[in-house]
Write a structure and sequence with these properties.
21 strands, FAD/NAD(P)-binding domain, 471 residues, binds flavin-adenine dinucleotide, alpha+beta, 2 domains, seven-stranded mixed sheet
């Protein structure tokens, strides 16, 4: 590693990788350094996937390292600007569409599957029409599904192209501790290397793309650098699991049915998210031992299950003076962990509605066989605030009109699923902060919440950097 680079990228998630890909493609000879506190892709492992419990790895193999939180993700590329973040706050919808198509073509060139779900407009119109009769909004979104195993190879291909071919320098297990400025211009980063050495590396341009795992650190940095931030929403809810037969007619053409319902009692926005036909429910372990539920599915037909799972989330944007939506979400998740002894809780909808706990015997009677085998049967009403629980139940009842069987006693609800969105860093339309040549992008800056939009923010930044250099 040298002492100075043209561009320093903090974080090797999709936002950071796409910054590098675009820089390399559009401007030859730039000295680019990518720093990540996690490991190179081939070294990333999560023992919890076999052990069923968090082994407390530092850094966590799931969220940190080459390809970021996307490495072991389901690899669903949402091809609509309406899904996966707020990039249309920074550009027109047409510009966003163009950039999504461009980023998609890059994923394809690295081996993404050619099939796109959700393009049959006749079917979409029919479902939309049916949904609207029950006050449900369907957000059409074409999806390219890489599948958990394929996403890995696509991102590995990007590693080979950028790092193994020597186009950029990648330093794994390197944590950026501090971002330095001089006269309100980006100057350098202070890093801790894998050998525990503290070094200062100068950069003409600094791109901070630390993802959700680095969001708190980025918040501290923005406070120190006097860059303004705004509260973002927190989404709290459950993961729903039902037999494929209940969701098939929606997922067959759409792959992912993105549904929105405003709950009757509280008028809260409830939405489906991350739908996995034939998928599995999984446990996600965060720093500090926090266990949250998630789900994914494999592209390989042989690995498909009989169940479909999806998140059902209630969105809340807290107002002044409250400023800690992430802590609020974690607090609720901790309650579920407390009741289960540290893992994920599962309850049948029928038991929840009858005000009783699901125990082992009741779970055994369920016609929906849980795919998360070590989930602990329990009672979500001891965990989720009344407002959330009521909104979730009302949404399930409404969705049953377009997916009959969803509001059934054997529908499984796993808790807690939380989507934390980092505080939104104030940036201009090129994602540059009030510190010149310092950019913040991706999930960590509270701008995106998905692979595709995170990738797009990287492309925008790279183009802006090149324009400045060429000026
Ligand atoms: C289980 C799971 C499934 C998902 N499935 C999907 C899906 O199917 N489709 C979809 O669109 N999205 C999915 N997502 C979300 C998607 O992975 C993220 O939106 C995306 O990865 C965000 O990209 P990013 O580059 O902003 O941040 P990240 O991917 O989080 O990358 C940030 C990187 O920065 C590094 N970093 C953080 N702080 C520092 C620091 N101080 N110094 C050095 N490095 C640092 C981290 O190690 C990390 O590698 C999923 C996420 C998870 C966890």
């Amino acid at each position: 590693m040298k002492n100075k680079y043209d561009v320093i990228i903090i974080g090797a998630g999709p936002a950071g990788i796409f910054t590098a890909l675009e820089l390399v493609k559009k401007k030859k000879g730039l000295d680019i350094l990518i720093l990540d506190k996690g490991r190179a892709l081939s070294q990333r492992k999560c023992p919890a996937r076999n052990l069923g419990r968090c082994a407390g790895c530092d850094p966590c193999g799931i969220t940190f390292g080459w390809s970021g939180a996307g490495a072991f993700s389901d690899g669903k590329l949402s091809l609509s600007p309406e899904v996966g973040g707020n990039i249309t706050d920074y550009m027109t919808e047409d510009e966003a569409k163009e950039l999504i198509d461009y980023a998609d073509s890059i994923y394809l060139s690295f081996g993404a599957q050619s099939e796109v779900h959700g393009l049959n407009s006749k079917v979409i119109d029919d479902i939309k029409y049916e949904a609207s009769k029950h006050n449900i909004q369907l957000i059409p979104c074409p999806v390219r599904h890489l599948g958990t195993e394929k996403a890995y190879y696509v991102l590995e291909g990007m590693y080979d192209y950028l790092v193994n071919d020597g186009k950029v320098t990648f330093s794994e297990m390197t944590t950026v501790i501090d971002i330095l400025e001089e006269n309100r211009t980006a100057k350098a980063v202070v890093i801790r290397t894998k050998d525990n050495e503290i070094k200062t590396i100068e950069g003409d341009f600094i791109v901070a793309a630390p993802g959700r795992g680095g969001a708190e650190w980025l918040s501290e940095q923005t406070r120190k650098l006097s860059i303004s931030t705004n509260n973002n929403a927190v989404d709290i809810g459950v993961r729903v699991e039902v037999p494929n037969s209940i969701m098939d007619h929606l997922t067959k053409d759409l792959y992912e049915a993105k549904l929105v319902y405003y709950s009757d009692t509280f008028d809260n926005k409830v939405r489906t998210f991350c739908m996995n036909p034939g998928g599995v429910v999984s446990q996600e372990n965060y720093e500090g031992g926090l266990a949250l539920v998630n789900g994914h599915s494999y592209a390989d037909e042989n690995l498909k299950t009989d169940n479909t799972n999806f998140a059902l989330l209630v969105s809340t944007r807290f107002t002044e003076p409250f400023k800690e939506p992430i802590e609020y979400g974690k607090y609720i998740a901790r309650l579920a962990n407390m009741l289960t002894g540290g893992g994920i809780l599962v309850q049948r909808l029928g038991d929840l509605l009858q005000g009783r706990r699901t125990d082992k015997d009741r779970l055994k009677k369920s016609t929906t066989i849980p795919t998360l085998k070590n989930a602990v049967p329990g009672d979500l009403s001891y965990v989720l605030p009344h407002r959330y629980l009521v909104s979730i139940i009302e949404a399930l009842k409404a969705f049953d009109n377009i997916a009959p069987g969803l509001y059934s006693k054997n529908t499984l609800l796993y808790g807690v699923e939380c989507k934390f969105y980092s505080s939104k860093v104030q940036v201009n339309d090129k994602f540059e902060t009030s510190v010149k040549n310092l950019y913040t992008i991706g999930d960590g800056a509270g701008i995106t919440r998905g692979l595709m939009q995170a990738s797009v923010t990287g492309i925008v930044v790279a183009r802006d950097i090149i324009e400045k250099i060429n000026r």
